[in-house]
Amino acid sequence: EADIYQTPRYLVIGTGKKITLECSQTMGHDKMYWYQQDPGMELHLIHYSYGVNSTEKGDLSSESTVSRIRTEHFPLTLESARPSHTSQYLCASSDMGGNQPQHFGDGTRLSIL
Amino acid sequence: KNEVEQSPQNLTAQEGEFITINCSYSVGISALHWLQQHPGGGIVSLFMLSSGKKKHGRLIATINIQEKHSSLHITASHPRDSAVYICAVSRGGSNYKLTFGKGTLLTVNP
After folding, report:
1. Phi, psi of A18, rounded to the nearest 5 degrees
2. Which of A5, A70, B30, B48 has the most CB atoms lying inside 10 A of its own CB?
């Protein structure tokens, strides 16, 4: 059973606030990912990491930043939230090696007022 | 045009019906993934395949590499199968980047 946790599940917050979305996994996976998904639309990769101290931007440009100080933890930060950041953010992880399935968290639904 | 196209976008079925969801892609891939997303957002990986056919319970996934096409079948559908089914492909020798279809919303009525 996959064990990957995201908090908070829902967040409604005002413009200009600093936000950190948490993602933790207990499977010891080296690869971790952040996706953004607007309602009715496909997922887009915004950040990924191959391991500690490794972070890369994904295919979709995002004003968010990530860090990977510990294997199990991959937080995403928005320094100054704007209404355009309103979306669902999904975290995932996978084991190293070719063609491994990705394990997803339940997502954070973010609304910026 | 998306690199991964799914059809249909929406599908409504009666309990017990056999269901097929299709996925076509236009790029070279190393694997194709079928995922299930329930209301509330959580995503579960159903299958990852690079050739042939896989079966898990009432779910069957097939892929035809030459035709760049995959199908997900659900036999004896049940209301609990209601969800969004997403096709995604990974390219090259690594699966670290997935390209996703927009998903098929399946509703199974009792």
Report:
1. -90, 135
2. B48
Q: What is the pLDDT of residues A59-100, one digit of tens each?
A: 888 889 999 999 999 999 999 999 999 999 999 999 877 678
Measure the N-to-C terminal CA separation of chain B; round to a whole number of Å. 36
Predicted pLDDT at A46: 94
The verdict on A105 touching B (C-beta cutoff 8 Å) is: yes
CA torsion sign for A98, B26, B73, B34 is positive
The alpha carbon of residue B35 is apart from the nearest alpha carbon of chain A, in Å, by 10
Helix (H, G, I), strand (E, B) or coil at B80: helix
Q: Does A95 touch chain B (CB under 8 A)?
A: no
pLDDT for res B93: 57
Asked if residue B35 lies in contact with residue B24, where contact means CB atoms within 8 angstroms, the answer is no
> Mutate which of B45, B51, B85 to disrupt the A interface (most A C-beta within 10 Å)?
B45
Instruction: Please count the residue pairs, one from chain A and one from chain B, whose beta carbons lie less than 8 angstroms apart.
Output: 64
Residues in chain A closer than 8 A to B9 (CB atoms)? none
Largest CA distance in chain B: 43
pLDDT at A62: 85
Question: What burial class does residue A89 get, using C-beta atoms within 10 Å of its C-beta: 0-12 exposed, 13-18 middle, 19+ buried?
Answer: buried
